[in-house]
From TrEMBL:
Species in which this protein is naturally found: Arthrobacter cheniae
Superkingdom as given in the UniProt entry: Bacteria
Segments passing through the bilayer: none
Signal sequence bounds: none
Pfam family name, one: HbpS-like
Name this protein carries in UniProt: Heme-binding protein
Amino acid sequence: MTISTLTLADARTIITAAEAKASEVGQPMNIAVVDVGGNLISHARMDGAWLGGIDIAINKAFTARAFDIETKELGENSQPGQQFYGIVASNRNRIMIFAGGIPITHGGEVVGALGVSGGTGEQDQSVAEAGVNAL
């Protein structure tokens, strides 16, 4: 059995595209890419990006891979009364329910994920989408 995963070269491609989009929207970002196992491959903190966004970006990527769902969608389904309410307390409190975390697929299989933090939810999501679309 062969497990397909993102490589460092893939992560660099993703980060470069995400940085370009972050520059376009005028918001420095933290950008993290994880492999199929949810392990960090690479992280970039753009000049001026919040220090507090480092863990958030890494954990958004982890969350997107751990549940194979965009963090934006998970956030919508984890509000009071929704099916995933309370999920943020799982996995040693690593679960992020803000927009900006996206699983990355290849050939119908999840091969890793991207997490972006530093702007509004809409900015984080658009930067993450640009990164994912670079592959």
